[in-house]
Amino acid sequence: MITIRQLRYFHALSETLHFGRAAKQLNISQPALSAQIAQMEAFFGGPLFNRAASGVSLTSDGTLVRERAARILAEVGELESLATLGDRLLNRRLRLGIIASVAPYLLPAILRELGHAYPTLECEIRESVTDRLLADLATGRIDCALVALPIENPGIETIALFDDPFHLALPVAEASRLAVPVPIAALRQERLILLEEGHCLRAQALEICRIADAGEMAGLAATSLTTILRMVSGGLGATLIPQMAIADETSAGGIAILSFQAPTPFRTIALAFRPSTARRRDFDALAELIRRTGSAVPTDAAVSDRHDDRKKSRKPRLAVTGQHRDSSGFRG
Fold first, then answer.
1. Rounded-to-integer distance, Cα 280 and Cα 178, Å
2. Cα separation of 115 and 290, whole Å?
């Protein structure tokens, strides 16, 4: 019979791939760890780890066990949390994941509001790409994650928080050649610079480009929106920028931000978590706090107006809603 202790020991070793480091992480002796792993291997009738002078690695059976063990341990963690929740909301550790195209713009405000509303909460943050966060969520490494919809994973539940419209960013010197608001079809004439593969913001931008039947993409890519916008200010092309990023990313100047014609393309930000969670009340409270915080994030969707006397300057707020826009809009 396999025990929860053995699964935890196995999980630690599968993560570290080092008996010494795993034993230290578990606060046990290395012989005790080796004995438990040997018992598991005897149960399965074969090795779960390859031992070699070059190091430890998972066997094919070990890889299959790791996926299932992680899910079981996540469920055990949910069950154990029932005993410690109490009646107060968000009064214990919260491991929050967040995608890189949201973290710099929303996270500081979220942490500030959490500190005010829930002073006993201990919040741990993990920033990564969507696929990695969903994998961490499924295996219990994090409790919830801020992501952009859609999420094609039946094992993950989401609460839609708000819609984040996209705008066109291009060099200031080129802003006057486009009508404002910009028709989505105008993207066909732009050399667009996008994030590297793996970022959901890239996938969303490519979907908008597909709808616009856009052609040439610039032979440039970057791992951050900040770097892309420096390329834009240098005259290397244009890009799509989410509204929540405008205030922070355009402060250095040199970039014009133009709004799109309706229906405006947008992405929907959501809170993702495991359906089996015992902390649904916590996540409902967190979702409401993030909605309020999102509505207060400063934006400036009219940067180009400061370089064009024909238009009056305005500063629209971030549209916050738990509902999707009508079917004529673009999904993020």
1. 47
2. 13
180 vs 104: CA distance, rounded Å: 28
How many angstroms separate the CA atoms of 121 and 286, rounded? 11
Block mean pLDDT (10 aa), the chain, length 332? 90 91 92 93 92 90 89 77 63 90 94 92 92 88 92 90 94 89 88 81 81 61 83 90 92 90 93 89 94 71 39 32 31 36
Per-residue H/E/C for the chain: CCCHHHHHHHHHHHHHCCHHHHHHHHCCCHHHHHHHHHHHHHHHCCCCEEEECCEEEECHHHHHHHHHHHHHHHHHHHHHHCCCCCCCCCCCEEEEEEECCCHHHHHHHHHHHHHHHCCCCEEEEEEECHHHHHHHHHCCCCCEEEEECCCCCCCCEEEEEEEEEEEEEEEHHHHHHCCCCECHHHHHHCCEEEECCCCHHHHHHHHHHHHHCCCCEEEEEECCHHHHHHHHHCCCCEEEEEHHHHHHHCCCCCEEEECECCCCEEEEEEEEECCCCCCHHHHHHHHHHHHHHHHHCCCCCCHHHHHCCCCCCCCCCCCCCCCCCCCCCECC
Burial of 181 (0-12, 13-18, 19+ CB in 10 A): middle
Instruction: State the pTM of this model.
Output: 0.71
Residues 139-153: b if buried by 16+ CB within 10 A, e if exposed: bbbbbbbbbbbebee
User: How many C-beta atoms surround the C-beta of residue 10 within 10 A?
Assistant: 26
Query: Which residue from 226, 244, 229, 241 is spatially nearest to 299, judged by alpha carbons?
Result: 244
